[in-house]
Amino acid sequence: MKFHTRRPIALAAIILTASAALTACGSDDGGDSGSDSGSDGGGELSMTMLPKNLGNPYFDTSTDGAEAAAEELGVEIEEVGPETASPDAQVSYINTVAQQGKDALILSANDPEALCDAIDEARSADVKVVTFDADTNPDCRDLFINQATAEGIAAKQLELISEQIGGKGEIAILSAAANATNQNAWIEMMEKELAENPDYADIELVDTVYGDDDDQKSFDQTEALLQNHPDLKGIISPTTVGIAAAARYLSDSSSKGKVALTGLGTPNQMREYVENGTVESFALWNPSDLGALATYAAAALANGDISGEEGDSFEAGELGEFEVGADGVVLLGEPFTFNADNIGDFDF
What we know:
The chain is α/β, with parallel strands linked by helices. It contains 10 helices and 14 strands.
């Protein structure tokens, strides 16, 4: 499911017009201690990309974007990471980045606080730290490349599920890990919107469960939701692993066409389920663009072109110019809705 072209022009145009989730490269000797880190300003910059976990199609795609940007910049980049999405599993990789004297770490954090000590050690070794997709405490890193605002992502998913269930009925959320920073922010916003927005007065959130970004566990949690809530009308899964697993379960169940499913997924994962009528629509940004933007930002930091202060600006190739906002946040854009009318136009 990897997206091998640099970035689909159609998707870039749509997302930018609209407003604006593997295996380790351990055989790449260029990332080892004998490499030129480029810290003297005259050599090649050396970066490490650390997603939440490997083997996740969403992060496969963000890494493709990062590698394409690195190639354009003349930057060395390697991907490393755990097989399972947990903060403890990421700590050793962060420590290795510091020991190797890398110029930058690009990280999707599995916990907002638990990684901060390791990140502090890396920053003390003059490693620039850019988070993407899921943030840490802002004090722990230099920049956060945010795919979209929590409010925007929450609003889009509620809008889609409301349309699909006719604005009333019981819904549930199938999330990733219980401590996933971005998931929890989106869920909090959805809960707030459900409680306060009169448009959703007839929608009741009856359960939130966690699949830990594991395909089988997410599949099993979908089955449990349907068993525990026989009147369930819809499921929101704001995670690419979860929504695909839930769609796979629904597509072969008696609930197909009766229980709506939306959330965040990639077109290649979800195409089958959109085309067979299991899923009407879902949303996402372009994770390839997200990985690319994080790489451009990390290079700008490592080269001293920006310091990460609010108001700093930098160029990100074909993506254009971006400005650093409050708390060191750089915003990619707004989520895009995929459905039967357009899903065939995309390949990632």
